[in-house]
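In line with agreed milestones, the collection of sequences with tokenised folds has grown. One record among many is set out beneath this paragraph:
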Amino acid sequence: MQQDTELMLCKAGIDAWRAAFNEQDAVGCAAQYLENTVMEARPFGVFEGREAIQAFWQNIIDQGFKEVAYTDVTWTKVDEGGYLLSAKWTMNKAFGVIHSEHWVVDEDGKARLKSDLFEVLGER
């Protein structure tokens, strides 16, 4: 796969995740992760697999968090495939940093998260 096509698919993946979150759709958020993804959400803990990740996002949505936006986004090509995304993020009630999201192109041609490490730095 050409590098620019792969990056385009990864960017479409994060756009799909952001749209799902802003529509308050935890199922749609979880669909952007591979089945066996490990997500570390500091300070909340580690969540393994799509089902646990969906439950995490549903809990966040149920608490009234919404309107996620990213700034200072950086994409870095990974030798073993895919791209790492790092960024700052804000929501209506919190802000933080994405240390590393590893996006890879799945068998169906859509990019999904292979791993996710982000942190809440404070409340708004």
Observations:
- The longest strand covers residues 111-123.
